[in-house]
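Researcher: Batch entry, complex prediction.
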Amino acid sequence: MTATLDLDAAFGALADPTRRAMVQRLARGPATVGELAEPFDLTLQAVSKHLTVLTRAGLVERDREAQRRPARLCGPALAGLTEWLLDFRTHVTEGYERLDELLAHDPPPSPSAQRSRRSR
Amino acid sequence: MTATLDLDAAFGALADPTRRAMVQRLARGPATVGELAEPFDLTLQAVSKHLTVLTRAGLVERDREAQRRPARLCGPALAGLTEWLLDFRTHVTEGYERLDELLAHDPPPSPSAQRSRRSR
DNA sequence: CGGTTGCTCAACCATTAGGTTGATTAAAGC
DNA sequence: GCTTTAATCAACCTAATGGTTGAGCAACCG
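Model: Structure tokens for the complex:
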């Protein structure tokens, strides 16, 4: 749907507290690398790297404005992630009712099939 | 609430495709390590490790049933994750309207006060 | 009892991740 | 034109990941 949402990259990106904080910061509006770096006592380079990770995960996009390269949030990936989780929760409830008390969610709409994966 | 939901661990756990697949598999019901390992051509040990990761992330719980140690999904962490994402999206929309087109979501219901987080 | 089944523990290995310092590019600002 | 500002590139280090093999433990099977 969002085309190629890389769940590996997206989840991975959010697995880091610094990155999560940056994302939350960006939720308030675009920011330059320097601005993003400020609260973290990390080098600019480190922050730049984090930004790269977030960008490759599709969570942020970069602009170019004079010498500055402000970053701004990129919604779809976030939406995609949320969707995956919600969708997953739906799958959980379907055919495995015991869980609806755990997840406290609504009844399953339809069956589906799913298959494995090859890794690394 | 879910007390200490470790976002680092939880997002991190889901950042791996094998682990995600295992979680999806578990969504259909508890499974032993062997059963979980089967589709992946990995050693049992590797799968066992993944299970440990998932367990530490609070995503699964282990039982003990003779020599078997079946794993089953543990809803709250999943729910917590989803909540974080949804909550975050809410933060995004509030006070930064440009994003509602990005996130393609519903209009913000009301202003509210909710503020950041400290990490690391 | 001895063997098999189901799994974990331990040691190890290769790759990646998060961070650093140092050098370099690129656009402004006198 | 040189210097400052903003950021990236490059090399490097350390620690964590994802995987392996091999040994060990616990419970059941005959």
